[in-house]
Amino acid sequence: MFDKSYKAAALMRKSRSLAAVLLAGAMLAGCQSVTATHTTLTDQDYRKRHPILIAEQPEVMDIPVAMKASELTPDINRSINRFVNAYRASGTGFMNIQVPAGSANEVAALTAARAAKNVVQRSGVASSHIRVTPYQVDNKAWVAPVRLSFLKVKAVAPDCGIWPEDLGKPDTDKQFFNFGCAHQQNLAAMVQNPSDLIAPREMTPADGEQRSRVIDLYRTGRDPSAGIQTQPNLNDL
After folding, report:
1. Does one domain contain both 80 and 175?
2. Nearest to 91 by CA among 64, 62, 66, 125
3. pLDDT reading at 188 higher than 50
4. For residues 220 and 217, what is the distance between their CA atoms, to the nearest angstrom?
5. Alpha helices in 91-207 (DSSP H)
6. In this predicted structure, what is the pLDDT of residue 126?
7. What pLDDT is attached to residue 144?
8. Are residues 107 and 166 in the same domain?
9. Does residue 11 have a pLDDT over 90?
10. Among 111, 119, 108, 121, residue whose Cα is nearest residue 77
11. What share of the chain is helix, strand, coil (3-state, %, to 5)?
12. What is the CATH number of the domain that holds 90?
């Protein structure tokens, strides 16, 4: 009786050991089947599929010119001033003034271009940095604008709406190609200084006066947050 019980217990121990070995083998096989590679990680990173690049892109302002216009309106003058301010702040190269050639308003456009150049110069741009060139208009019946432009360093993202693969495939669990593209487009459009995408800015110096005020409050047992200057709450106004 004792011998039979001993054999049954030994058989049960062997069965448990075999089951543990089989379970461990199945787990290892599962891990090996989903080994991550550089390719799979790239497929899952929308920043690599839709990278934001730093490049020079044109800033353009079209000035409408009527057939018999003899001068620029005050609103257009103010718009040119704002455009010139943007050029002086972040533009590179020349301020370009393009005059239509072969259009129905060719004569009026030439007069408007001279007036625009005077506004640009009065706004602080030297004449050596202004370039006036013609551009050809194909249809003589068109009323073409005078075009101001300059180059500016911008953050640029690729175009969206590219679908190279069938989204109905059930045998894949990776992100579809267009995923994250709109996010990159929005981020690139919101960046005021593209250099921030390359490296962070340096920290501003610490406010020594504010730090001394908070430390004095702490030493005297008062609430240190009482020494922090905050913006007024609009609800309290």
Report:
1. no
2. 125
3. yes
4. 5
5. 106-122, 181-190
6. 94
7. 94
8. no
9. no
10. 119
11. 45, 15, 35
12. 3.30.1330.60
Report the residue count for the chain. Answer: 237
Q: Does residue 199 lie within any of the structural domains?
A: no
Torsion region of 124: left, alpha or beta (phi above 0 gives left; psi -120 to 50 gives alpha): left
Decide the pairing of beta strands 91-101 and 130-136: parallel
171 has a pLDDT exceeding 90: no
Of the pLDDT bands very low, low, confident and very high (cuts 50, 70, 90), residue 33 is very low
Co-location of 83 and 60 in the same domain: yes
Does residue 147 contact residue 97 with C-beta atoms inside 8 Å?
Answer: yes
> Could you list the residue range(s) of the whole structural domain that residue 10 is in?
2-35
CA dihedral for 232, 234, 235, 237, sign (positive or negative): positive
pLDDT over 60 (residue 128):
yes
| pLDDT at residue 117 greater than cutoff 90 | yes
Sign of CA dihedral 194, 200, 205, 206: positive
Helix orientation angle between 106-122 and 74-90, rounded to the nearest 10 degrees: 50
Burial class (CB in 10 A: 0-12, 13-18, 19+), 197: middle
Helix (H) / strand (E) element for 79: namely: helix 74-90
Tell me what percent of the residues of the chain surpass a pLDDT of 90: 41
Q: For residue 91, which of 82, 99, 100 has the smallest C-alpha distance?
A: 82
Evaluate whether 120 touches 95 at the Cβ level (below 8 Å).
yes
